[in-house]
Design a protein that fits this description.
Elements: E1 2-10, E2 13-24, E3 37-48, E4 53-65, E5 77-86, E6 89-97, E7 104-111, E8 113-116, E9 119-122, E10 130-138, H1 139-145, E11 151-165, E12 170-185, E13 191-201
Antiparallel strand pairs: 1-2, 2-3, 3-4, 4-5, 5-6, 6-7, 7-10, 8-9, 10-11, 11-12, 12-13
Length: about 200
């Protein structure tokens, strides 16, 4: 992979740009709770002052795979993320492609006390936060990914969640639905059809 960049940092201002292309995730000196393989590319731009930085981050991770037993059946995934930090507020968008015909999408608005000099990084306990997560998937494809050889699953799954509140009192609302679901266990002979599940949070 290739990493390059440069810039300046002074008390009254800074201007940094770092580009990274084709970096193998398993070559990074990071201890991840979930070991991942794939290729990472993107850019990080820093402006403002060390005490009140302004940042922009773009990330594209392709061919994401894991050797974890439960995840071995997943196809290589594509993750794209973009974040902007200014005036102590982080706004980020994330997309995951490869699990379904449509990408899973997430959005986050997070208050953040962040400074490079002196270094500080924390989430204020009472400041409002917000976000969302949405996606849909063919459950037959999900069963195939999870290698359920003796079980047949059908139907359409859908998830739409919104997050709000504060760090001390987070809130969640939305729903998880399955329409026209079907299930058959070839080993036990269990057959279920026309399954409908609707889980709501308010």
């Amino acid at each position: 992979g290739l990493v390059d960049g440069g810039g300046r940092m002074e008390k009254n201002g800074m201007d940094f740009l770092i580009n990274f292309q084709g970096v193998a995730l398993d070559s990074l000196p990071l201890q991840l709770s979930l070991p991942l393989g794939g290729i990472l590319s993107g850019r990080l731009a820093l402006r403002g002052t060390p005490a009140r930085p302004i940042a922009n981050l773009e990330i594209r991770a392709s061919g994401l795979k894991s050797d974890e037993v439960l995840l071995k059946g997943l196809p290589p995934l594509l993750l794209e993320a973009q974040g902007d930090f200014q005036d102590q507020q982080l706004m980020a968008n994330l997309s995951i492609k490869g699990l379904a015909s449509k990408p899973f999408e997430a959005r986050l608005t997070l208050p953040l006390d962040f400074s490079l000099s002196p270094f500080a990084l924390s989430v204020p306990s009472q400041a409002p936060l917000g976000g969302s997560f949405a996606g849909e998937m063919d459950l037959e494809r999900l069963a195939g990914l999870l290698d359920l050889d003796d079980q047949i699953v059908g139907g359409q799954g859908n998830i739409e969640l919104q997050f709000d509140g504060t760090k001390e009192a987070p809130g969640i609302k939305g729903h998880i639905r399955m329409n026209d679901g079907a299930y058959e266990n070839l080993r036990t002979g269990t057959v279920l059809s026309r399954i409908r599940i609707d889980i709501s949070a308010r």
